[in-house]
Design brief:
about 290 residues, 6 helices, about 20% helix, alpha+beta, Nuclear Transport Factor 2, Chain: A, 2,3-Dihydroxybiphenyl 1,2-Dioxygenase, domain 1
């Protein structure tokens, strides 16, 4: 099961009704792993749920309530006729969890010709729940260590090539650095590279941790070293960084970089008052 944080930016909510909404909430949280975030039941009749929200760990969620609770169009909906598709990273593990919990499996694990792998189960009131790895056209790919290790290798190559335009393609237009000198615009770094004032001879990124925050935002912790020259003066750096990457519909781009020099770096580096600390992920310009 995916052990990651729940996003809070859902803007499309499938809505379902159930004869026994409390039982449905228990089923969806215990069998599939949804997280209960809001349940509003009637004080005088706790079995009647006016409104409930369940979040999915990878992002998104569903709303539900008790059928026939009033005479509105919502209240008159017939339960058991809905179907929901949910993205998951590990359908095999989720399938085993659902089977172990006694869920009715409508379609077992299947590798689709369009690249997805998943299965379909029926909830106790008849709704169909499909889980798979397909994220939709233009959706972000799976955010894992291998993905960002390869991306950062490419970014490092662009930095060593001292190609400001290529470096900039890995960042958002409003890219920012946060370090000992406060907040610095990424454009400042790119301008220095473009002018030839800042050059790099080496750059390494070692990915230590990848933590998806939502399906479009990822935190990446790296340790890196680099060396080069700033306006003719040689420098070297050894730093930790926490980067915020966002999916723009085509690729992951860095929006924010928090830089922290290693203890060894702090001990040996000369005063840095001449200019701000700058760099994608772990670049430092003494």
């Amino acid at each position: 099961m995916d052990a990651i944080s729940t996003t809070t930016t859902t803007t499309v909510w499938p809505c379902l009704t159930y004869r026994d909404a409390p039982a449905a909430i228990a089923f969806l949280t215990e069998v599939f792993g949804f997280r209960e975030t809001a349940v509003h039941a009637r004080e005088d009749a706790p079995s009647i749920v006016e409104h409930a929200e369940l979040r999915w760990p990878l992002g998104g969620g569903v709303m539900l309530g008790t059928t026939a609770k009033d005479g509105s169009a919502w209240g008159r909906r017939v339960p058991g006729n809905d179907a929901v598709y949910v993205v998951c990273n590990d359908p095999d593990a989720l399938f085993e969890r659902a089977v172990a919990a006694g869920a009715e499996i409508v379609r077992g694990l299947v590798d689709e010709d369009y690249g997805s792998r998943g299965f379909t189960a029926r909830d106790p009131e008849g709704n169909l729940w499909s889980f798979g790895t397909y994220r939709g056209e233009g959706a972000a790919p799976k955010a894992d260590h291998a993905t960002f290790a390869a991306l950062l290798d490419d970014w490092a190559a662009a930095i060593v090539a001292n190609d400001a335009e290529a470096i900039g393609r890995f960042a958002t237009p409003d890219w920012r650095f946060v370090g000992g000198n406060g907040v610095t615009q990424g454009s400042t770094f790119l301008d220095l590279v473009a002018a030839g004032d800042l050059t790099h001879d080496t750059m390494t990124f070692d990915v230590e941790h990848v933590a998806p925050v939502s399906d479009t935002t990822v935190l990446v912790i790296t340790h890196g070293t680099n060396n080069g020259a700033f306006r003719g003066k040689p420098f070297s750096a050894d730093e930790w960084a926490t980067d915020v990457f966002v999916w723009d519909g085509e690729r992951w781009r860095c929006a924010l970089t928090q830089l922290t020099p290693t203890p060894e770096e702090v001990d040996q580096v000369a005063p840095r008052s001449e200019k701000p600390r700058l760099g994608p992920a772990d670049v430092s310009t003494p």
